[in-house]
Amino acid sequence: MFGFARWRRRRILRQASLDEATWLRVANRFSFFQRLDAAERTRLRELVILFLHGKQISGAGGLELDLEKLLSIAIQACIVVLNLGIEHYDGWVEIVVYPDEFMPRQEIRNQEGLIETDDMSYSGQAWLNGPVLLSWADVDSAEEADGVNVVIHEFAHKLDMLNGDANGFPPLHAGMSREAWSKDFTAAFEDLRRRVEAGEDTEIDPYATESPAEFFAVTSEAFFEIPDLVRTVYPEVYGQLAQFYRQDPATRDLPREWRLRRA
After folding, report:
1. So where are the chain's domains?
2. In a 3-state reduction of DSSP, which class is residue 176?
3. Which of 1, 51, 156, 224 is least enclosed by beta carbons within 10 angstroms?
4. Which of 39, 50, 44, 12 minimizes the C-alpha distance to 26?
5. Domain spanning 3-262: which CATH class is it, in words?
6. Band of the pLDDT at 254, cuts 50, 70, 90?
7. What is the pLDDT of residue 143?
């Protein structure tokens, strides 16, 4: 990080006023926060401050966003870049939050080159070089820690888009093997698709079979919320995600009361 950027970051953090009681009340709702040690919690808090300073978050459809809602979104977004850096979210600023599922009515070009209107409803969307759209009802349900997390999902897409359209192949760090990533993710993707087509109940959300991009985003959700399960079902994918996110959440202790909630 260049000198000016470091100075600006320190200045933002120094001038920020984030009530500790409010911070802990919101952060403690998330199982992934419970797994963090003191240093990681401090780093996450700083990332949240920088995130809220740098992003424009607005409510749509009459939704009012108070501090706790903003913190909830920011905490979930920033756990993804805890050991990567807030600069991974550079290049765009807007987050729009709807009360519930929404219909963006995008115009998209199909394979034949014709323009169609997308009338589907969504709980979240991430646009290349553009905003993130979220459903508050789905954001708020993340406290269940069931491996479904719309914020982590959409921000995983944002990382995937750092080298173009989301395709399940984000820019890897030095020392990571593109061949190993492709091999491990392809094998798991094909296995999950086979199981879903066979009508099996799967540990990973079947939506992951929609495309390699969705498989990366869905397994990222599970990686942070139910890491032990991902490590058990698809250990190679877990290993790749641990390298990519530079985190190993399955090795972090989860407090007993949270383990009982999931038992």
Report:
1. 3-262
2. coil
3. 1
4. 44
5. alpha beta
6. confident
7. 80
